[in-house]
């Protein structure tokens, strides 16, 4: 055994490899290392032997899950030799992994910082840590992953650069993750440009790599955050999808009963006639069929009305992002026809099951409401499971999927620019709204200023003096009777640096301005808040002493803030949708700067339907001018503006009962004339024979 431990000497003690396997095996059969007998310093001739014994004993304690004893042994080593490679690696790894398991963020961060110290001082350790070793590579990717997942891109990317330079990787999985990861909050415009450039060049390099290998389908990071950048969305999301399919080619799939549309007018006409003789079967797929979701707030009423359309058979297809409640199931007007998918694992377990579930329904049209909001949904969307497949604006960017799979992107003519097609891989399918609301929106409050979301609480009695839900520090900043309140309800990770500068300039030009911004307090997001605050100050010139950060609020409290703010600010570039509509219910004036893509143009579209355009800015300077003028208008002017907005939203935007028909007409227009595939009829044996020949 001792001989074998010398011969099979690859790997790193305390990390992985044959060396570590023998340490754990041999150490476990010696009483001194297993904890039965104490390790006494005077029994060792050399201090280095004593240190080795402590390290081996610590490793054995780790194997036994006695982490406390292990850490005591390692820390004893570091008291003697602060640069001991084994102990630094062991304590860093242990703190990181156990901090994660115990949800102890302080312990986890301590572990990550220790691993980063190892990377910085690899040549100075005892013994030095070779940069081409599995330990160096493993530490780099482990610490880099931690940083990037917490939106700390600069540190994370530096660690991944070290990993790549080590040359130790045995596959391309971490290269794929590094290439596709996009932090939500770049620290500057320069870093934003660098991130987009890196995303492009690294993915292109992987696409050209003939020997790319990665058995882990979860290696590719979700490209959700790219929507918050000023980028070419079609180009970037298409690039991302191409890499996903190269990593996992089996994600691309076509239902067995689908066959190519015959290329002659007579056959097309015959098939269209068959479709028009019956109801069109439509399946809506979502991870957010829940009354608490803004996705349901957008689509829900429209979908229920579509279920009443006699030309359609509409099913709700539920993906279980969370547990599906009885109430969620009853959101459908026909709960007996609901379809429930199985959760997908990183290894794509249940993907074939979910394909089969949908495939058996033989939908004519399959519509995905919220791709990218749940990463697993995008995997399913790479399957062709219906003759016509459509995605829409749950996350308002292109799917990046080619048209042979995802035929159309359903959008609103009022919200898009004339050249909008260039931002989509899918063919744009417009709802021709005739300058009306394109979805059936219903109020989220009643005439007595009571929230209809989450308990029905009233916000009628809130004043600036009794906002008891605002933290003390923010209350002090808002207590000045001369303060003008500029409120932005959007999550601050959506802010672009351009918006940071707008906020800073508003403060400079309005000495009484107090910005009221949402503080990220959710466990998975709160680590972003210090970065956002630092960027606001450094890049935007924002005076943080005049910023009131308040946590995310219950809906009725949010409505109180809309009601009491002097002006509401639509974030740039990624703006409000549901938040915009509900703010209008109390007449809140929202200043908006439309961008180039759908997610940047909701508020201006609503204003145009309502017939109000003076709050739509032409550029950043115009935005600042409008915001300051609105916030500092006379009381009479403010009341008149609020009354006009409130009147317009209820008269022109809400309760458009024709909206569902607009959707149905658009769906039917493409359902009757599928361009690429159609369901195979019982008599299509010729196609089946050809299909087998091709295979």
Any low-confidence stretches, pLDDT <50, length ≥5? Answer: 691-695
User: Mean pLDDT, nearest integer?
Assistant: 90
Instruction: Calculate Rg over CA atoms.
Output: 29 Å
Structural class: alpha/beta
**Roughly how many Å apart are the termini?**
53 Å
Strand content: 5-15%
Helix content: 40-55%
Largest sheet: 7 strands, parallel
Tally of DSSP β-strands: 16
Number of helical stretches of at least 4 residues: 27
Kindly report the spatial arrangement of strands forming the biggest sheet.
5-4-3-6-8-9-10
In one word, what is the shape?
globular
Structure write-up:
- The chain starts with a helix and ends with a helix.
- It has about 700 residues and is α/β, with parallel strands linked by helices.
- Strands 5-4-3-6-8-9-10 form a 7-stranded parallel beta sheet, with helices on one face. It has a 5-stranded parallel beta sheet with strand order 13-12-11-14-15, with helices on both faces. Strands 1-7 form a two-stranded parallel ribbon.
- About 45% of the residues lie in helices and about 10% in strands.
Summary of the model, kept short:
The protein is α/β, with parallel strands linked by helices and 695 residues long. It is built from 27 helices and 16 strands. It is globular.
Give me the secondary-structure topology:
Layout: H1 2-7, H2 18-28, H3 31-34, H4 47-63, H5 67-80, H6 85-101, H7 105-120, H8 134-149, H9 153-166, H10 173-180, H11 189-207, H12 233-247, E1 253-254, E2 258-260, H13 265-276, E3 280-286, H14 294-306, E4 312-318, H15 326-329, E5 339-340, H16 351-361, E6 365-368, H17 375-381, E7 383-384, E8 388-391, E9 408-412, E10 427-431, H18 472-478, E11 484-487, H19 497-509, E12 513-519, H20 529-538, E13 547-551, H21 555-564, E14 567-569, H22 578-584, E15 590-591, H23 602-610, H24 620-631, H25 635-653, H26 659-671, E16 677-679, H27 685-694
Helix pairs in contact: 2-4, 4-5, 5-6, 6-7, 7-8, 8-9, 10-11, 11-12, 14-26, 19-24
């Amino acid at each position: 055994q001792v001989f074998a431990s010398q011969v099979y000497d690859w790997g790193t003690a305390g990390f992985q490899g044959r060396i570590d396997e023998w340490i754990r095996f041999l150490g476990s059969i010696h009483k001194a290392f297993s904890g039965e007998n104490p390790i006494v310093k005077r029994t060792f001739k050399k201090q280095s032997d004593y240190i080795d014994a402590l390290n081996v004993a610590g490793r054995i304690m780790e194997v036994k899950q006695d982490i406390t004893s292990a850490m005591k042994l390692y820390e004893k080593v570091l008291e003697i030799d602060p640069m001991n490679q084994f102990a630094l690696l062991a304590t860093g790894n242990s703190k990181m992994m156990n901090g994660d398991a115990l949800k102890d963020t302080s312990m986890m961060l301590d572990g990550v910082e220790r691993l980063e110290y190892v990377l910085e001082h690899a040549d100075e350790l005892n013994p030095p840590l070779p940069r081409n070793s599995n330990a160096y590579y493993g530490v780099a990717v482990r610490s880099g992953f931690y940083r990037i997942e917490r939106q700390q891109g600069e540190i994370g990317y530096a660690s991944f650069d070290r990993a790549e330079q080590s040359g130790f990787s045995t596959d391309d999985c971490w290269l794929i993750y590094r290439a596709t990861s996009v932090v939500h909050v770049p620290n500057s415009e320069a870093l934003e440009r660098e991130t987009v450039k890196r995303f492009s060049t690294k993915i292109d390099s992987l696409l050209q790599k003939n020997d790319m290998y990665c058995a882990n389908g979860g290696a590719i990071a979700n490209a959700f955050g790219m929507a918050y950048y000023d980028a070419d969305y079609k180009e970037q999301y298409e690039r991302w999808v191409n890499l996903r399919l190269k990593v996992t080619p089996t994600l691309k799939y076509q239902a067995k009963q689908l066959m190519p549309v015959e290329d002659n007018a007579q056959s097309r006409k015959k098939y269209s006639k068959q479709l028009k003789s019956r109801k069109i079967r439509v399946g809506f797929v979502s991870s957010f069929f829940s009354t608490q979701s803004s996705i349901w707030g957008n689509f829900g009423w429209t979908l229920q009305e579509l279920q009443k359309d006699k030309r359609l058979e509409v099913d709700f297809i539920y993906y279980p992002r969370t547990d599906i409640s009885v109430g969620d199931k009853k959101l459908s007007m026909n709960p007996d026809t609901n379809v429930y998918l199985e959760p997908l694992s990183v290894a794509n377990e249940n993907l074939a099951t979910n394909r089969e579930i949908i495939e058996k329904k033989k939908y004519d049209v399959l519509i995905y409401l919220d791709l990218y909001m749940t990463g697993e949904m995008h995997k399913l969307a790479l399957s062709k499971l219906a003759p016509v497949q459509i995605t829409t604006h749950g996350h308002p960017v292109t799917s990046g999927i080619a048209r042979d799979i995802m035929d159309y992107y359903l959008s609103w003519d009022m919200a898009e620019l004339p050249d909008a097609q260039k931002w989509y891989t899918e063919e744009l399918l417009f709802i021709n709204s005739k300058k009306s609301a394109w979805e059936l929106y219903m109020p989220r409050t009643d005439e007595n200023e009571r929230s209809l979301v989450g308990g029905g609480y009233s916000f009628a009695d809130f004043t600036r003096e009794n906002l008891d839900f605002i933290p003390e520090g923010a209350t002090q900043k808002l207590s000045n009777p001369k303060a003008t309140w500029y409120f932005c309800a959007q999550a601050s990770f959506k802010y672009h640096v351009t918006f940071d500068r707008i906020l800073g300039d508003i403060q400079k030009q309005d000495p009484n301005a107090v910005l009221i911004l949402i503080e990220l307090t959710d466990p998975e997001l709160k680590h972003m808040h210090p970065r956002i605050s630092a960027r606001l100050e450094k890049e935007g010139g924002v005076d943080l002493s005049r910023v009131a950060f308040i946590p995310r609020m219950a809906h009725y409290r949010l409505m109180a803030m809309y009601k009491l703010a002097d002006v509401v600010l639509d974030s740039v570039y990624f703006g409000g949708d549901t938040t915009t509509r509900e703010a209008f219910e109390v007449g809140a004036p929202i200043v908006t700067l439309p961008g180039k893509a759908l997610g940047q143009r909701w508020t201006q579209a609503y204003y145009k339907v309502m017939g109000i355009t003076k709050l739509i800015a032409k550029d950043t300077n115009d935005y600042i001018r409008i915001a300051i003028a609105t916030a500092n208008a006379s009381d009479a002017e403010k009341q008149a503006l609020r009354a006009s907005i409130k009147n317009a939203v209820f008269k022109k935007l809400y309760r458009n009962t024709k909206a569902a028909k607009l959707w149905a007409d658009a769906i039917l227009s493409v359902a009757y004339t599928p361009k690429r595939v159609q369901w195979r009829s019982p008599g299509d044996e010729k196609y089946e024979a050809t299909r087998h020949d091709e295979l």
